[in-house]
Design goal:
The chain is an alpha+beta fold. The protein has 3 domains: 81 residues, no CATH class; 70 residues, no CATH class; 39 residues. A 5-stranded antiparallel β-sheet has the order 1-5-4-3-2, with helices on one face. The protein is elongated.
Length: 203
């Protein structure tokens, strides 16, 4: 077949790579930001941030602990219903919510609020990244993974010549493959992380 009549594969590969790249931008941002966050989970909580506040309401009185708790919630304009109200000590009444707790000193009227607030957007990104929702998101995540594979493979054949796969590209691909392989070898891999001795295949 004449050179000029060959099927123009490379333009189609470039078009596929371009359109998949545009399509993957949103999901890539979600997975990249979440990946950075959960990589450092030992240093911080990637889903919630802790907060503490002190309120001074003056001496509180009521028929029982429930009445005191209702009085505090009314003064602080809290509409949320507590899950538990109990005496932590003779001087302290605790009002517990799913994401916060009020420590009340009825005699002084001092209320210490401790709780957690979801990190804006990041908690949702982590929820998606770790596939906590399951169901339909599993198929979306699978499609995204397949798209990344296509991006990687199509990227190999986009550029011809010495800057492509037969030249500098081959060196860069080899370096990219060598990085995770070398790290597994040098760190000991999953067996070292789990504390178990490495298993050897039998004869």
């Amino acid at each position: 077949m004449a050179e000029g009549k060959r099927w123009p594969v490379r333009p189609w590969v470039r078009a596929l790579h371009r359109d998949l790249g545009y399509l993957a931008v949103g999901l890539t941002l979600v997975y990249a930001l979440s990946g950075l966050a959960v990589n450092h989970i030992s240093d911080w909580d990637p889903n919630f941030r802790n907060h503490e506040a002190t309120h001074r309401l003056g001496p509180l009185a009521g028929e029982d602990d429930e009445a005191i708790a209702r009085q505090v919630l009314q003064r602080l304009a809290i509409q949320e219903k507590p899950t538990e109200v109990y005496r932590a000590s003779p001087e302290q009444l605790d009002v517990v919510f799913p994401r916060r707790t009020l420590h009340i000193n009825p005699a002084s009227g001092e209320v210490t609020e401790e709780g957690q607030q979801p990190r804006f957007l990041l908690r949702a990104a982590n929820w998606l990244h770790l596939n906590r929702g399951k169901k339909a998101w599993t198929y979306i995540a699978d499609a995204y993974a397949a798209g990344l594979l296509l991006l990687a493979l199509s990227g190999l054949f986009m550029i011809p010549g010495r800057k492509g796969l037969l030249g500098r590209g081959a060196v860069l691909v080899a370096v990219g493959v060598a990085i995770p392989v070398a790290y597994v070898q040098l760190s000991g891999g999953p067996d070292a992380a789990s504390g178990r001795p490495a298993t050897r295949p039998g004869p």
